[in-house]
Amino acid sequence: MSESVRPRHMPSALLEDLAKLDCFGRDERGGFTRLAWSRELLGAVQWVAGRMQEAGLATEIDAAGNLIGRWEVGERPAVVIGSHLDTVTSGGRFDGALGVLTGLDVVRRLRAEGFRPSRPIWVVAFMDEEGERFNSVMLGSRAFVGESIPPDEADRVDAQQVSMGEAMLTWGRDFSEVLAAKHIDDVHCYVELHVELGPVLEAEGVDIGVVTGIVGLIGLSVTLHGITNHAGTTPMAGRRDALVGAAKAITALRDDALASTSHMATVGSITTAPGGANAIPGTCTFSIDLRASTNEGLQAARRSVDAILAEVCEAEGLEARVTQTYSLAPVPLNDEIGEVMSQAAEQEGLSRMRMPSGAGHDAMVLASHVPAGMLFVPSVAGVGHAPEEFTADDDVARGAAALTSTIRELAR
Ligand code: GLV
Ligand code: MN
Ligand code: MN
Does the predicted TM-score (pTM) go above 0.90? Predict the structure, then answer.
């Protein structure tokens, strides 16, 4: 275990910004809920836009709801620092927000030291990285790079049956214009700082993770159909209970992933219909999130899902309908940017290690289009997507130092 040195500089403005962002979407569990296109997220985006303007950046909220703050310098393609301000339900304080606010702090620091970039520097908060509300993971970065967005995404509804198209209108944005957010042709490279959301850096006692690649993801929505009937009069034998089928499938998915060396499988949400205590659930809908670091691993996991559902349906007299809600291929990040980041960390006297990311990030969308790199800072106890997610001020300071040196080099 290496010994961390105290950071040379405490970024007081960044720490204050992080604390002020707490006003937006804090919930009763102490977590943060700023779902895509929500009022809470809009408040956060508008507040950060104001902070960007105070730092001298020209701001825009684009057609996909991405906040862009531009330090305009001539016509060359920009160095982009990005992450996101949206969260999962009751997520942590740092996931995404740290990357955006640190990007802004880097700009403040570079301006204060009289740095003259040779190309524009943009700070971007992408819309809907988490994708929880509408299963529209990374909508903002997908639009930013100009990927075609399937039209059916506009019709996806949240738990209150509000469609994404309707929710976008509350921000004055029209789904049919989402690709006006394509900015990738003006981008030179992409850099993202993020909390690790896992246990490795803390366990190894290392200050900075330089990310080598990002895991691939497939999201599925599964509905099992059986037969609803009376809880008291229907014999136990021969029932076609969709929730019992789901329970068996979920356990089998867990066991299969436990036995696999290549993939992870998580069921994070489940609903039944009709949903009363005294009726057999005739319908059960649940999510499956599959992750693997290779395409082969991801496809093998997908095949396992089909096999497990077929077996459960056969045994329980059910029918399964499966729709894919997201799919992002695993991507390597750029070695040269990784080397710049590693040297930047070294210059700042920080220990560092190369590591893969098990979480998805906007960088994985950007990486297919421009050289992209990521820096991780430690997460206490490896907690992510929970209110207890935490990163210490000293680690925030170390990350800010490494990111500042990285941008000084990339925009020199
Ligand atoms: C994004 O945070 C993900 O990995 O789910
Ligand atoms: Mn997240
Ligand atoms: Mn994130």
Answer: yes
